[in-house]
Specification:
By secondary structure, the chain is an all-alpha fold. Helices cover 70% and strands 0% of the residues. The chain folds into three domains: 61 residues, lambda repressor-like DNA-binding domains (434 Repressor (Amino-terminal Domain)); 133 residues, Tetratricopeptide repeat domain (Serine Threonine Protein Phosphatase 5, Tetratricopeptide repeat, Alpha Horseshoe); 145 residues, no CATH class. It is built from 20 helices and no strands. α9 runs antiparallel to α10. The chain is elongated. The chain starts with a helix and ends with a helix. The model has no long low-confidence stretch (mean pLDDT 88).
Length: 361
């Protein structure tokens, strides 16, 4: 990379315009544009000023050695970790920030260590000053960093700090500014704010709804994974993923054994097919027998309104009253049609014939 490209990249990371950078360096906006378009280079006397402004070394300004920069920051944070002392951590990270003043990782680390002072210290002024500085460095990351992931981390740290000092509205505001990429931080952070605020009714509603949404996402992803593996004829992996999916599907069985029973059936059918393709008759028959047992949970006269989650599984989903019909259901299973796919595989296998005859009866 050349210096013009590096200046452009660093400017974008800092989220400033060419005009703003020009003002800081005492040059024209046109000069910045020419640098970034490789029409000319900055005067050599400006290099230290540019490097200092972006918080990088002159070597990095020229070569943009991202790996060596990251390694240096990692080394500073490891040294802080190894100190096993909060005050020493703050000292080490603060020294690191003198060398790398725009490092979001160092700033977020510093904010965390400073927030620990609020828990440890008995000196109210020390606690107040630590919290103020922690908030300040987090806001610097939020306002100047172009890395969305780091901004999300800083916002989540602000949420943690604001919760600890009882400023819950600011904590919620920080959470709501986290990007879609930080979905997990948004969900867990919101639950933590509600807990700290002791809003237990809303906490129950939010956590149950969020858990169920996460459950749906995982269920659908497992299903997609299973379908693709079957299409790719990767039958051993089909079995492994189906076993994992079964654990997910049984999570809430304590409150409702027939929860998502049709998904259990589809999973069971996939395993039976995989065993058939692998030539494992005994295991295949066992899955078909399990499939038959699961059908007992199906209601021939099922109606959609009977499958509202709060009613189906009140042990876990008592607060969910606005999701409507979430569970797919079947009113009948064409089991004989399913079995016909396996007749030639089992041929005249006695155990299979006895199983099939018992079903017909």
């Amino acid at each position: 990379m050349n210096i013009g490209t590096n200046i452009y990249t660093l400017r974008k990371e800092k989220k400033i315009t060419q005009a703003q950078l020009a003002e800081k360096l005492g040059v024209t906006e046109q000069a910045i544009s020419k640098w970034e378009n490789d029409q000319c280079a900055p005067d050599v006397s400006l290099f230290p000023m540019i490097a200092e402004f972006f918080g990088v070394s002159i070597d990095r300004l020229f070569g943009y050695h991202t790996s060596s920069y990251n390694d240096a920051v990692e080394a500073i944070m490891k040294s802080a970790d190894d100190s096993m002392n909060t005050y020493k951590e703050i000292e080490i990270i603060s020294e690191g920030l003198k060398k790398y003043p725009n490092s979001p990782d160092l700033k977020i680390y510093l904010a965390f260590s400073l927030s620990m002072i609020n828990r440890m210290s008995k000196d109210e002024k020390e606690k107040h000053d630590a919290i103020e500085k922690a908030i300040k460095v987090c806001k610097e990351v939020v306002n100047s960093c172009g890395d969305i992931e780091k901004v999300d981390q800083a916002l989540n740290m602000l949420r943690r700090i604001y919760c600890e000092i009882g400023e819950f509205e600011k904590a919620v505001d920080a959470i709501e500014r986290i990007s879609a990429n930080g979905y997990r931080q948004r969900i867990v952070g919101k639950a933590q704010v509600l807990k700290c605020r002791k809003d237990y009714l809303e906490h129950a509603r939010f956590t149950e709804n969020s858990l169920f949404e996460c459950y749906l996402i995982m269920d659908q992803l497992f299903e997609q994974k299973r379908i693709v593996l079957l299409e790719g004829k990767e039958y051993e992996q089909v079995l492994s993923w189906c076993r994992a999916h079964e654990k997910l599907l049984s999570i809430f069985d304590e409150g409702c054994e027939d929860f998502f029973v049709c998904h259990k059936l589809w999973n069971c059918e996939a395993k039976a097919e995989a065993y058939k393709e692998l030539g494992k008759k005994e295991e295949c028959l066992q899955e078909l027998q399990t499939f038959a047992l699961l059908t007992k949970y199906l209601n021939q006269n099922a109606r959609a309104e009977n499958y509202q989650i709060g009613l189906r599984n009140p042990l876990y989903f008592s607060t969910i009253d606005d999701l409507g019909t979430q569970e797919e259901f079947m009113t009948t299973i064409y089991f004989e049609k399913l079995l016909s796919k396996y007749d030639s595989f089992f041929d005249k296998d006695e155990n299979y014939l006895n199983f099939k005859n018992a079903l017909i009866k």
